[in-house]
Amino acid sequence: MIVRKLEELKGTDAEFKAAKGTWTSRRMLLARDKMGFSFHDTLIHAGTETYIHYANHLEAVYCVGGKGELQDLDNGVTYPLYDGVMYALNGHERHYLRAEEELRMICVFNPPLTGREDHDENGVYPLLTEED
Ligand SMILES: CC(=O)NCC[C@H](N)C(=O)O
């Protein structure tokens, strides 16, 4: 069994800040944990906009705090984000995340992230494995 506490991850390499500064992800379970998915507690910082395209991953996201919006660029629909809203990117949809107030998002990735991924200029995470 694995038991981890958010307070223990702070300041370690499991606390990953995006180079663009728009989000900070506390990556609680990673590929090295061999669960088949990774599990993150992510903060999307207030007043930011992030373009994302997970071409190599599936992601489910559950918002548990804050206020913002998700714009799906594939279907043109914008969805409000607040505590209790979940979305699943089951079609590798291109999207924007905008935070009016800091959003707290619980995220699951398949395949699991290794912990070193950041969005490239196209909003994509590379497909890394533990061996990379
Ligand atoms: C919701 C989302 O995709 N945020 C970007 C960061 C991501 N959750 C991560 O932890 O790498």
From TrEMBL:
Family: Belongs to the ectoine synthase family.
Main function: Catalyzes the circularization of gamma-N-acetyl-alpha,gamma-diaminobutyric acid (ADABA) to ectoine (1,4,5,6-tetrahydro-2-methyl-4-pyrimidine carboxylic acid), which is an excellent osmoprotectant.
Keyword Transport: no
EC number: 4.2.1.108
Pathway it works in: Amine and polyamine biosynthesis; ectoine biosynthesis; L-ectoine from L-aspartate 4-semialdehyde: step 3/3
Keyword set, alphabetical order: Lyase
Biological-process GO terms, alphabetical: ectoine biosynthetic process
GO molecular function: ectoine synthase activity
Gene name for this UniProt entry: ectC
Keyword DNA-binding attributed: no
Catalytic activity, reaction form: (2S)-4-acetamido-2-aminobutanoate = L-ectoine + H2O
UniProt xrefs under Pfam families: Ectoine_synth
Catalytic EC class: lyase
Name of this protein: L-ectoine synthase
Domain of life: Bacteria
InterPro entries for this protein: Ectoine_synth, RmlC-like_jellyroll, RmlC_Cupin_sf
